[in-house]
Design goal:
Radius of gyration: 17 Å
Helix content: 10-25%
CATH architecture: 3-Layer(aba) Sandwich
Shape: globular
Largest sheet: 7 strands, mixed
CATH topology: Aminopeptidase
Strand content: 25-35%
Distance between the termini: 29 Å
Order of helices and strands: EHHEEEHHEEEEE
Amino acid sequence: MLTNMRAIAPIDLSKVWPEIRHEVAEIEAPDGFIPEDAYAMCKSAQASLFFLEVEGKRVGWMICRLLGADLHIWMVRAETGYDVLHTFRGELMQLARSANATKLTYGSTRKAWAKVAPDHGFSIRMVVYECPVEPLHVCGNGASIPNIAIDDGAPDNDKHATH
């Protein structure tokens, strides 16, 4: 399966943003961000928009940003049937290595702690997941290959902000 995370340059953002703005607006944003905030961060190169393609067909998009030493998946949307973290793992790890990131992160709202948190004066805002950036493996002939992930069991209907 031929996959590609196609980076959208800030100069080209205004051409493609109308195609996804309504999808960005549909994503729950616990941090209060609106589509114009995401646009502004991508336009000013504080975040990067990628179109996710499989066999030349766009199946979704992702916005990533560097947070300290982490490559953070901020927002993602993909058609049902595409588990972004599985399908694009190689490209994500290469992007993280290129940015000298040590971790790949994403966040998500979570309700599991809803019963206990209020007792301590907390409300749940988000949970952040992380994994180490995988090193590039070198073959005996000097060629490098990324690690290939097996099915991780995650839902394949990615459509959320990860904050």
